[in-house]
Structure formats: C-alpha cells, structure tokens
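Suppose a colleague, Dr. K., hands you the sequence of a protein chain of 238 amino acids and asks what its three-dimensional shape might be. Before reaching for any lab equipment, you can write down a predicted structure in token form. Begin with the sequence itself:
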Amino acid sequence: MIKKFFKRLILTILVVLFLTGGYFVFAGYRKYRTVLKDCPIEQAVERYTGKRSYLSFELIGKDFVNATVSVEDKRFFTRNGYDFIALGRALLSNLRQGEFVEGGSTITQQIAKNLYFHYDDTSLSTKLAQVFLLYDLEGKYSKEELFALYANMNYYGDGYYGLLDASRGYFHEEPSELSLAKSAVLAGIVNAPSAYQLSDGYELAIKRQHKVLETMLDNEYITQQEFDDALKEVIPRP
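The predicted structure, expressed as tokens, is then:
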C-alpha cells in the first residue's frame, strides 16, 4: 500500500514537472517568435554593425579576446549551441552557496539578451527565448563575427559603449594595441560596469582584473611570467 502511494506520488510529481517544463518552453518559444516578428535578427544586428565605430574581429587584440572568453565563456570558440556543462556547474555552485551567485549564460545568450531583452527580465521564459535565439545566431554568424558583435555592443562604464570607445576613452589607445593588463581590465568591467568603471570604481576594477588574469592563467592563455608582468603594470586612472 505504501509502495503504491509513493509510486503514484513520484509519477504525479514527474507529470507536474513535465507539464510545467512544457509550459515554460512553449512560453519561451512564443516570446522568441514574437521578438523575431517585430525585428528579424539581421535587422537587430545591423543596429550595431552599421555604426562607424564598429570593430571587426581582426581589429580586436588577441589578449582581449582571450581575457573575455576565459572569464565569460571559455568554450565559446569550441562549443556549438547551448553550454549545458556551464549550466550544470552554475546550478551546483548556487546550491552550495544557498543563493543565486553564478549564471550559466554564454556569450551568444548575452548577445541575444542585448539585442532583444534590454529590460531586466530574468524570467524562465525569457531565458528560454534567448536559447532559441542562440541557435539562430550561431546558425547565421561565425564565432568570430559573434565575438566582435559582443565586444561592440557592451557597455564599459563611464559613458563608453563599445570596445573602441572604451579603449580610446580610458587609455587613449586602439583596441589592437592594448596590453594584457589593460585588456583584462576592460574584459572585467563588462560584468558590472556601474561597479567597475574606472572613474569611481578603480579599486574594484583592479580586483576584477586580477580575477580575469587568474582565469587566463588557469585556462593556459598566459604563462606565469605574463601573469606576473601584467600585475606589475600600473593602470592609469581616468
């Protein structure tokens, strides 16, 4: 009798989870179709690529690329589609901490969010809509094109939108000329521009830079000597 009860309970829970999951997937797909109907992907991307300040991938320094990928999405160039490994790692981290401390968003998901969901919406249906958009974006554009789009659309604090404006505004240098230390600073600011912008968040930005450099070292993008040399470089205040 007890076994039958628990079997029915488990079956009921599974059915509820299946129906709930199906509801959110449908809601996410509907939201995905709605935003595409209002603005096709090519048109949304053109809002950024059509700017005179837009940088192609070839004009972005290798250190900045490696710093960004290392801290934001280390399998970006080797993975196709959604990063389920990162999602699992984020869920485990959040469970250990007992709160939401880590997300599982990929660079392409963040692009989708910036293109279509500028407002602060963390609902599950919106997250799923971003996943649907992820597959469209990766089907239409190369990883190099997507990385360039990401670097150009991000806000770097202190009124600087896009990598070119940030590089010139903060350091008076072209993005291709940035040192490893400066590249790590800009790659770190994107995570929380209001907190890490150099005008009033300099100390936090330097701490964030150290974290970025540590991830680059751990992922073997840089050597120990390069890591040590980057830490010695003094980042100028605005």
